[in-house]
Design goal:
TIM Barrel, alpha/beta, 16 helices, 387 residues, eight-stranded parallel sheet, 12 strands, globular
């Protein structure tokens, strides 16, 4: 196995091993990709305060996310089509997360089903839900998640309609991939990926096919999916979902102070400051820049998490020190999965944990719970001054 010292090492291997359409699906944003890019680059503006002559024995990165003990405050974010990055991808990522002691979140648009994850893991996992028009399908989906032991629902609010991602359109993104001449030529150079895919039965959206009305095979899936994202989603809808789900509930896609305040009225257990990885509204501010204003608005009335742009343990530390209770990684674990399967996800978690632990120590802290803005140097006007 190659020596892995940073997430970028996994990304380089990932790019070589995964078909172009699925690499581009992961490594892209909407429109000009400004928000996608700034999600990461804005972390660079925040500097760390080095502290010395502090006893660094008995350090701990352990914490809690909505009452669940975690090895570090990092969860695996929901990523659609993870099972196209590597055969049985969601299963492998969930197993790696369980072994490491962090939560795994399954996307509605996953390749492996809710039942697949439950069959191959023992720790409770989280389920991410998109609001769709087919109410019967959604009710059945929530029932399946409860039966599988999911102890939290992550309700995504920022995808009432799909943002345009140029690369996905040009690549003809689909699961499984349509065998056009361009795709065939690419797959010929990704034979390792192809061999593993041939060995699994999980090659389409198994949460949907066979469960949604009139969707019994892949030919019916695309038209059904295109019509399903519900533009009528509003705060009353969110309250209805709160009533339907009697376990922990997290609202994902909060990027505005007013929306954060409205989230307080729903009865959710946490919110995720997120712009969908820069894949929806291009030109929006990065998650890390909006984290502070949202924390100022809601205080400790609700648990505030953050995703978007995290590629290192230092990014995790900066988000926590800014005030986030917890963080999520998406692309960082996908790089590992596409590079080396379950072992790659474990490597991504190991790298992030080591960077987090080492940086915490060099900042003079032994307990992750003690991180705060006193550990950071934040530029004046970091969040921006807007008319």
């Amino acid at each position: 196995m190659p020596t892995i010292t940073e997430i970028a090492d996994l990304k380089r291997i990932y790019k070589r091993r995964v078909p172009k359409m699925f690499y581009d699906y992961c490594e892209s944003g909407s429109w000009t990709e400004q928000t996608f890019s700034e999600n990461s680059s804005d972390f660079d503006q925040i500097r760390l305060r080095q502290r010395v002559a502090v006893d660094m024995t008995n350090r701990t990165t352990k914490g809690q996310m909505i009452g669940r003990d975690v090895a570090m405050p990092v969860a695996l974010a929901p990523v659609g089509m993870t099972g196209m990055q590597h055969a049985d991808g969601e299963i492998l990522a969930a197993k790696a997360a369980e072994k490491f002691g962090v939560p795994f979140t399954l996307s509605t648009m996953s390749i492996c089903s809710i039942e697949d994850i439950a069959e191959h893991t023992s720790a409770p996992f989280w389920f991410q839900l998109y609001v769709m028009r087919d109410a019967q399908f959604i009710d059945n989906l929530l029932g399946r998640a409860k039966d599988a032991g999911c102890d939290a629902m992550v309700l995504t609010l920022d995808l009432q309609l799909l943002g345009q991602r140029h690369k996905d359109i040009k690549n003809g993104l689909s699961a499984p991939p349509k065998l056009t001449p361009m795709v065939i030529a690419d797959l010929a150079t990704k034979w390792g990926w192809g061999l593993k895919m041939l060995q699994t039965k999980r090659r389409t959206f198994r949460n949907i096919v066979g469960h949604a009305q009139s969707v019994d095979d892949i030919s019916q899936l695309h038209s059904w999916t295109a019509q399903q994202f519900d533009p009528r989603l509003n705060w009353d809808t969110v309250k209805e979902y709160r009533k339907k789900w009697d376990r922990k509930m997290i609202l994902k896609g909060i990027l505005d102070v007013e929306d954060a305040r409205k989230a307080l009225d729903v009865g959710a257990d946490a919110i995720i400051v997120s712009n969908h990885g820069g894949r929806q509204l291009d030109g929006a501010l990065s998650s890390i820049k909006m984290l502070g204003p949202i924390l100022d608005a809601v205080g400790d009335k609700i648990e505030v998490h953050m995703d978007g742009g995290i590629r290192s343990g230092q990014d995790v530390l900066k988000a926590l020190a800014m005030g986030a209770k917890s963080t999520y990684i998406g692309r960082a674990f996908i790089y590992g999965l596409g590079a080396m399967g379950e072992q790659g996800v474990s490597e991504a978690l190991r790298v992030i944990h080591k960077e987090l632990d080492t940086t915490m120590a060099l900042c003079g802290e032994r307990d992750i719970a003690n991180l705060g803005r006193h550990n950071l140097l934040i530029p004046k006007g970091f969040e921006g001054e807007w008319a």
